[in-house]
Amino acid sequence: MTRREALVWLGTMSGSLLLTSPVRALSRLRPVRAFIPRLRAVQISDIHHGYRGVGNPDPAASVDRALALVKRLRPDVLLVSGDLIEADRAARVRERRLHEVWERLTALGIPLLAVPGEQDALMDRGSLWKQVVGPLHFHEEVRGVHVIGLDNVSRGYLLGSPERRWLFNVLDGIPQDSPVLMMAHAPLAWFYPPWNWYTYDGPAAATLLKRFPHHLFIHGHVHQVLTDAVAGIGGLGARAVSFAYPLPDRQQPVPLRPLPMPDQNRNDGLGVRLIEFSERFRVTDHVLVEPVILGARTD
Amino acid sequence: MAMKGQLLKFGLLPVVLAVGVAVAISRGLPAAHSAPGDGSIPQGARLYQLACMSCHGPDGNGRGLAPVPGMAAPALDRLDLNVWTEARLAAVIRSGSPPMPAFGAVLPGDAIHNLALYVRSLQTAPKRAR
Fold it and tell me: How far is B86 from chain A (nearest CA, A)?
C-alpha cells in the first residue's frame, strides 16, 4: 500500500466512524414526548395580609409581585393554601383583612380554590371564612383533575372523624386512574409538632391517597419549599408570599420566628408554584426575587 | 362426730385463709390492666408533647407559640387545683376554646383523662388552702 492509499484508507475509515457514530447515538435516543399539560394550576400560599414585621418590610410589594407572576403564568385555576390574612384578636380586623385579600384575588379573573389557614379560621372555627370565601373543605373536578381541599386548622391542627369520613366517601367515588390533587394548609405528616407543623390525624387521611397512582398533596404553613411524607404519601410545602421561615433544628429547638428579610435582597425566600398535569404531575417552584445575572455590570 | 367437726374446721380453714390472703393481695397489687378512671400521667405527658406543648410551652410554662398574634396560650403550671379539677380540665381539652383546638374531635375519653391528669401534675405553686 502506498502512502497515498494509506491516507485515503485512513480518511475513509475516519469519515465512516464520524458519520456513523452520531447516527448510532441518535438511534439510541428515545423520541421526546411533548409535555402538554391538561391542567395548569398555580399555588399561592401564606399571604398573611396585614402582617407587619422583620420578615418583610414591604409585604404589599411582595403580593403585587406574586400576583403579577400569577398572571404571567396564566393558570386554569389558582389554588390558595391558607393564611390569607394575619389574624388579629379583633373580629372586625380579621373580617376587613379577609374581605380585602379575597377581593384582590377574585379581581385576577382566575377561578379560585382556597383552603383556610389557622390565621383565617382558628379564632372563630371558620365562621368568617364560610361567609367570605366558601366551604372549609371541598371537592372540585378541574379539567379531569380531582382537586380536594382539606380543612386541618379551623378546630385545631386536625381533621376530625366527620371530615375524614367525608374524604373517604369522596375518594371512594373517584376512579383509581384519575389524577387527584389534594391541598391543605398544614402538612398531614407530623413534620414538627413543636411548631404546629403537623395534623394530628393526618396520617389516616394521607393513606387514603395510596390507591391513586397519580396523586399530589400540597400544603402551605411552612413558608418554604419542603418535602415531607406520611403513610408513604409525599407532601410538598410551598413558599409563602409574605415572609420565610427557617427549617426546624430538632437538636436545638428554638421558637418559631420569621426570617428577617434583608433590605438588599427583598422577596428572598418568597414564591409561587406552578403545577401541571399531563399523564403525571409536574411541579415548578418560582421565586419572587429578581434574577441575579453573574458578571452583570452595576455601574 | 367430734372428729368430723375437727376435720371440717381444719379442712375449711386453709381454704378460708387462702381466700382471705388472695383478697388482701389483690387489693395491694396493681391490676394487670388499669381499671377505668385510673389514667396514666406518662401517657398524658406524651400526648402533651405532641398536641399541647407547641402552644402551652414545655412543662406548661406558657412559653410556647402564640397560635394567633398577641394571644399566647396560658401557662398551665400555676393552676388552682381546687378550681381546675380533672373534670373541668377534661372539658376544656375536649371542647376547646378558640383559638384552643377541640381535641375531643381526635382524642378518646381516656386520652383526655390522661392529659388532664398530667396537667394537674405540672403544678409548681403551692395549692391554695380551702
Answer: 22
Model confidence pLDDT, tens digit, residues A249-294: 988 888 899 999 988 778 989 999 999 999 999 999 999 986 555 5
* Residue pLDDT, tens place only, A147-160: 999 999 999 999 99
Between the CA of residue A173 and those of A9, A35, A137, A138, A164, what are the distances in Å? 71, 28, 17, 14, 14
Residue B53 to residue A194, Cβ atoms within 8 A: yes
- Pairing relation of β-strands A215-219 and A145-149? unpaired
pLDDT in tens, A38-61: 999 999 999 999 999 999 999 999
**Who among A86, A122, A256 is closest to B99 (CB)?**
A122
- For chain B, the straight-line distance linking the first and the last C-alpha, in angstroms and rounded, comes to 65
Contact A196 B98 (CB under 8 A): no
Interface mutation target, options A136, A155, A201, A257, chain B, most CBs of B under 10 Å: A155
Residues facing A39 on adjacent strands: A277
Q: What is the per-residue pLDDT for B92?
A: 96
The reply to whether residue A194 touches residue B51, judged by beta carbons under 8 angstroms, is no
Q: CB-based contacts of A213: which residues, under 8 Å, 6+ apart? A: A176, A177
**d(C-alpha A199, C-alpha A205), whole Å:** 10
ipTM (interface predicted TM): 0.78
Close Cβ partners of A268 (under 8 Å, ≥ 6 residues apart): A244, A261, A262, A289
A172 CA: distance to closest CA in chain B (Å): 22
Q: Helices marked H in B1-130 — which ranges?
A: 2-28, 41-51, 53-56, 86-95, 109-121
Residues from chain B contacting residue A189 (CB–CB below 8 Å): none
Cis peptide before B99 (omega within 30 of 0): yes
A122 with B98: Cβ contact below 8 A: yes
The C-alpha of B114 sits at a distance from chain A's nearest C-alpha, in angstroms, of 17
Question: Which of B53, B69, B101 has its CB closest to that of A155?
Answer: B101
